[in-house]
């Protein structure tokens, strides 16, 4: 499948919401209110929302990247999602490749992210891409959930 990376705008937010539905992240952090929509609108407004778009114009995946978000030094991946109908088709891997290329192009030597302790599938995904655990932050984003801080040299 051929994908194009483009920056998301506030006009993309509605079409971007389904990317995160039917996911553990949505269930634990966003279900029940408009936090996801507000988060995506804010990210789009700050130029932090990136979309994986198919040749047919469908949003297959999305990520929020803060280019100097980790101590002002390294790109920080704040959110990554793949629409259910595109899961298992390497969209997440493609987005990570784009992130790592963005990091190199910006002069950064590392990429950072946090992954929730309950999200073992994502932990395996990131480990398979060469990310290692720097440490853990209990209750960082939500009480009762520990976030693992992951880093990769690019």
From TrEMBL:
A family per Pfam: Acetyltransf_1
Checking InterPro entries in the record gives: Acyl_CoA_acyltransferase, Bact_Acetyltransf, GNAT_dom
User: What are the N-acetyltransferase domain coordinates in residue numbering?
Assistant: 3-154
Sorted alphabetically, which CDD domains does this protein's record hold? Answer: NAT_SF
Q: Which Gene3D superfamilies match?
A: 3.40.630.30
Q: Read off the PROSITE patterns from this record.
A: GNAT (PS51186)
Question: Which keywords are on file for this protein?
Answer: Acyltransferase, Transferase
Q: Does the keyword Acyltransferase apply?
A: yes
The answer to whether the entry has keyword Iron-sulfur is no
- Name by which UniProt lists this protein: GNAT family N-acetyltransferase
């Amino acid at each position: 499948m051929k994908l194009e990376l483009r920056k998301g705008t506030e006009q993309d937010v509605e079409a971007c919401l389904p990317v995160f539905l039917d996911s553990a992240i949505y269930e634990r952090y966003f279900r029940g209110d408009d936090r996801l929509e507000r988060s995506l609108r804010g990210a789009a407004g700050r130029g932090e929302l990136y979309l994986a778009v198919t040749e047919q114009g469908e949003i297959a995946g999305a990520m929020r990247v803060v280019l100097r978000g980790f101590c002002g030094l390294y790109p920080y991946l704040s959110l990554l999602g793949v629409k259910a109908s595109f899961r298992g088709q390497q969209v997440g891997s493609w987005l990570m490749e784009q992130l790592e290329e963005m990091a190199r192009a910006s002069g950064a030597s590392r990429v950072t992210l946090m992954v929730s302790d309950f999200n073992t599938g994502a932990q395996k995904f990131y480990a398979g891409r060469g990310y290692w655990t720097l440490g853990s932050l209990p209750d960082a984003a939500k009480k009762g959930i520990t976030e693992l801080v992951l880093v990769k040299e690019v």
